[in-house]
Amino acid sequence: MPLKISRVLHAGYVFECDDTLIAFDPIFENPFSRNCHAFPAVRFDHEQIRQQTFAAVFISHFHDDHCSLESLDLLDRATPIYLYCLFDELFAMVRELGFVNVQRLHIDAPVRVGPFDVIPRAALDADVDSMFHIKAHGLNVLNVVDSWIDPEALAELARDAPWDMVLWPFQTMREIDVLSPRRAAPAPSSLPADWIEQLQILNPRYVVPSSCQFLQEPWSWYNHAFFPVTYRQFQQEVEAALPDARVARLNPSVSVLLDQTSLRGAAPLAWVMPVGDQDVDYDYRPDATPPHTADIARHFAPLTAAQHERVMDYCRSGMLEKYREMELPEDSYFETGRLWRLSVYDHAGAATHFSFHVQGDQIAPVSDGEGEGRLAWTTEIPVSKLYAALEMGESLTSMYMRINDAAFEAAIEADIETADIVDDPLIRCLFNDVFGAYQAAQLRRLRCNNT
Q1: Residue 433 CB neighbours (<10 A)
Q2: Taking Cα atoms as reference points, which of 276, 288, 300 lies closest to residue 217?
Q3: Do the beta carbons of residue 54 and residue 24 sit within 8 Å?
Q4: Is the pTM of this model over 0.85?
């Protein structure tokens, strides 16, 4: 009996065997995560999705491109939902959505659904991610999702080699590098060596480049900055290193039948509708010049007066309160007293500057012009994106934050070379110790829509 595997979007898949359907990390939205536009492009028939009967849905982790309440809202509330997450809040949100069977996944504890055994496996960051080992009719498929494999887990997974199929997160994503492009190191010209080593240990018959590339707005410089690894490069390097393996690209909606001896095409998912050319590849341009934050901000619609004041009030007081509540990492750049300037750009490209003295877990406003010669860190952001992060749970990936896009004194430059970009005070205030902001914002919208 073959196993039918269908691609939905990003790390989303539907597996079918013996008339039993299960789904992994289902995202039925484009764009997803607010501003990630599927590449290649697709549309979804939500009415058809509402008619699907999944025996279970498995979610690998809480990130919004894997766990979306607006996508889950399309499913029958009797559908069992299995989540890998350490935070009780997410389970509560899914239950509030109306699902009556919401279960916590545990590493190495199998879940039986019809002919399937689904076994969560340990990812490198076990506080966040999990992977999935799917077994059916003697076939073994490893869905690595978009995590990395824990070394001890790899040793366990090696015992099942050769694997029939591995769904591998093929891209390296430069989501941190784009925050400070003038200081980012060039992207490596080849795949990470540990990818090849791990794939050789798994020794799969088929490798699917998984976790989709995406685009931002048509004008965005990000569209050529995020993904240096193409499908073509991945296939060439993997097949050269694993001569007995075949790399099989599954675009959204594409289905295949996997059995003990072959992989062949099958009818695509009717409710995932490709738009335009699907055999496209990312156009990475390492030498592209990023536009100034002022120019980026001009692309966004103006906020209302109340929304704008929400952001200004946060910069004047709410952010400071949040910062003082957090514990600074021991090796923080801000253990030493630093002058930090935050610049917030409106829809006309005009900036409002805020200056702060930051040391340890203390932060205090600095008067205009005071200590400018000692400037030691800068952060720029469009006001609309800061508002979206505060009120709609927008993630760092699409916020167009720009860090240290300036030349500092020589001693400061030397210190910044070893600083961690995500030690940025605004990043820490928005995202450290914050869980489920995106899903909470979705739940608020869904409540409003249902009243």
Answers
A1: 10
A2: 300
A3: no
A4: yes
Question: Rounded to an integer, what distance in angstroms lies between the CA atom of residue 288 and that of residue 270?
Answer: 38
Q: How far apart are CA 448 and CA 17, in angstroms?
A: 38
Q: Using only C-alpha atoms, what is the Rg of the chain?
A: 23
| Residues recorded for the chain | 451
DSSP letters spanning 404-417: --S---HHHHHHHT
Give pLDDT < 70 ranges for the chain: 368-373, 451
264 three-state secondary structure: strand
Distance CA 340, CA 158 (A): 49
pLDDT at 50: 97
| 431 phi and psi angles, rounded to 5 deg | -125, -20
Question: Given this model, what pLDDT does residue 174 score?
Answer: 93
**So what's the pLDDT on residue 114?**
97
Question: For the packed helices 193-202 and 231-241, what is the interaxial angle rounded to 10 degrees?
Answer: 50
Q: Residue 293 is inside which H or E element, if any?
A: helix 293-297
| 247, containing H or E segment | strand 246-247
pLDDT at 400: 97
Strand order in the sheet with 3-7: 102-104, 81-83, 56-59, 20-24, 13-17, 3-7, 255-258, 263-266
Domains recognised in the chain with CATH numbers: 3-274 (3.60.15.10), 293-449 (3.30.1050)
Q: If we measure between CA atoms, which residue out of 382, 299, 384 comes closest to residue 342? A: 382
The whole-angstrom separation of Cα 252 and Cα 41 is: 8
Q: Strand order in 338-345's β-sheet?
A: 362-365, 351-359, 338-345, 375-382, 402-403
- Please list, in sequence order, all residues whose beta carbon lies within 8 angstroms of the beta carbon of residue 7, skipping any fewer than 6 positions away: 13, 250, 251, 252, 253, 254, 255, 269, 272
C-beta of residue 163 within 8 angstroms of C-beta of residue 142: yes
Beta strands at 206-210 and 165-169: parallel, antiparallel or unpaired:
parallel
Question: Is the distance from CB of 24 to CB of 60 less than 8 angstroms?
Answer: yes
Q: Phi and psi for 414 in degrees, rounded to 5?
A: -65, -40
| pLDDT score for 373 | 57
**pLDDT score for 420:** 93
Q: Residue 369's pLDDT is what?
A: 58
Contacts of 50 (CB under 8 A, 6+ apart): 74, 75, 76
Residue 149 near residue 129 (C-beta atoms within 8 A):
no
What DSSP string runs through 20-84?
EEEEES----SSBTTTBEEES-EEE-HHHHHT---SEEEE---STTT--HHHHTTS-TTS-EEE-
- How far is residue 40's CA from residue 215's CA, in Å, rounded to a whole number? 9
Query: CA–CA distance from 259 to each of 4, 8, 269 (Å)?
Result: 9, 21, 19
